[in-house]
Automatic annotation (TrEMBL):
This is Phosphatase PAP2 family protein. The keyword Transmembrane applies. It comes from Clostridium neuense. It is found in: Cell membrane. Keywords: Cell membrane, Hydrolase, Membrane, Transmembrane, Transmembrane helix. It is a multi-pass membrane protein.
Length: 174
């Protein structure tokens, strides 16, 4: 088992370095800094509030389901993050180009990616024709977190899984 984990960690670092060091350019520095905010707490709260206001008289309950899914995914993400205590890559690896945007010390799972996928999967469930757009945007959020040096690829991958799962569960159960 430890050999498998070491192999995963090696690939995690290799992918991180490729996204963080090899494709680095001034355009991506700016673009990734902006796109990462789609998964931020202020954006998520604002999106939930707007969704609740716009759909308060609707029978489809989009705003309600989105807000429940965001609350669940945020709670689970923060609980897991505090349990795992995985140190962020820019703290552990000395040669990264890190653009630290209001982060704590722990990285697993990526909260931004979790939030972005919670929103995009819920949107996709309600508006399936637009799902490619939603999934591309949330995928860019996950990539931005790696590009900025604040997450490993497995942090973003688990955030993708967690956010997606929370949206599907809330969508089906409510």
């Amino acid at each position: 088992m430890s050999k498998l984990l070491l192999n995963i960690e090696k690939h995690d670092i290799d992918i991180l370095k490729m996204l963080n060091l090899k494709i680095k350019c001034s355009f991506l520095d700016k673009f990734m800094t902006y796109i990462t905010y789609i998964g931020s707490v202020p954006f998520g709260v604002l999106f939930c509030l707007i969704s609740l206001i716009l759909t308060r008289f609707s029978t489809n309950l989009f705003g309600f389901k989105l807000t429940l899914a965001m609350l669940l995914s945020t709670f689970l993400s923060n609980t897991i993050k505090k349990s795992v205590n995985r140190i962020r890559p820019y703290i552990k690896l000395s040669n990264l180009n890190a653009i630290k945007i209001g982060v704590d010390n722990y990285s697993f799972p990526s909260g931004h990616t979790t939030s972005a996928f919670t929103m995009s999967v819920m949107l996709s469930l309600f508006f399936p024709k637009l799902s490619p757009l939603f999934i591309i945007l949330s995928t860019l959020v996950g990539i931005s977190r790696i590009y900025l040096g604040v997450h490993y690829p497995t942090d973003a991958a688990f955030g993708t899984f967690l956010g997606s799962l929370c949206s599907i569960i809330i969508f089906k159960l409510t």
